[in-house]
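Let us work through a complete example step by step.
Step 1: write down the sequence.
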Amino acid sequence: MGNTEILPTIADIRAAADRLKGIAVRSPLLEFERLNERAGARILLKCETVQPVGAFKIRGAWNLMSRLNADDQARGAVAFSSGNHAQAVAWSGRRLGMKTTIVMPEDAPEIKIANTRALGAEIVLYDRGADDREAIAAEIVERTGACIVPPFDHPDIIAGQGTVGLEIAEQCAEQGIVPDIALVPVSGGGLIAGCAIALKQAFPDMDIYAAEPDGFDDTAKSLRAGERVSNQAGPVSICDALLVPTPGALTFTINKELLSGGVAVADPEVRHAIFAAFSDCRLVVEPGGAAGLAAALSGSSHYSGRTVCVVLSGGNADPVLFADILRNAGAAP
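Step 2: predict the structure and record it as tokens.
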């Protein structure tokens, strides 16, 4: 699996892109006039919602798991995730013929638990407030010899996720666009770290910002502090995919060098972004996947009149919550 201390490079991301051909979708970069008018900026949406498991996570999971040797693949894989990484590992495992075990919080959206189980994974549920998911996964590894597939803090995962940024750079170049800003949803930081490597290679002057929920903006706080800091206990958010308390060690090493900062978005702003994506673009986006769009629609003058790439990182929206948002979140927050 390689040395986890080695930082991935643009060459690693390009190699990951080759492995992902025929596996991940080259997701579209879309522009909608109504959304531009709403934002007061040129918004380019990178729609990772169209991936086989509805989120970008398939890129990193496949890039790591497909590189395992036959003995490691035979022992199976273990992952811990609130849902999208879980589905990506289960999907990749089924395609590779690997047994997969996923440690999931019992309060994860039922659709994510059901979808992961349907992909053939064994599910181990835990209490997010009382249990240590990494300790549970480590016990399974010790007992079975399975390989851990971490959600973000591994060079193969980061390189796989970085293919999102590589595609954005290619698609902008194809259209003759030089983007000013990228807004990327952040949990542990693997997606934005990989994207930042690829985007900074193509557009050195581009500003890249982490988009996180209020109370869970540990990456933004860590960037300001110059070191990894953790969120205080207590806050809640509908962005279930973005609730990691502390940035990854490897991801933060990359992000502190390449990111321009971070922005926190409140749940009402996220709800409005989900409504706008559906109303203006006919796109279904889950709360965590809409954090970057929520930032773009926040009314900040920082984005006004600029070209902003927004990663819509996932579309596995809970149907009940999604319906509630469409009924009640039409007005701006």
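Step 3: interpret the result. The first strand starts at residue 29 and ends at 30.
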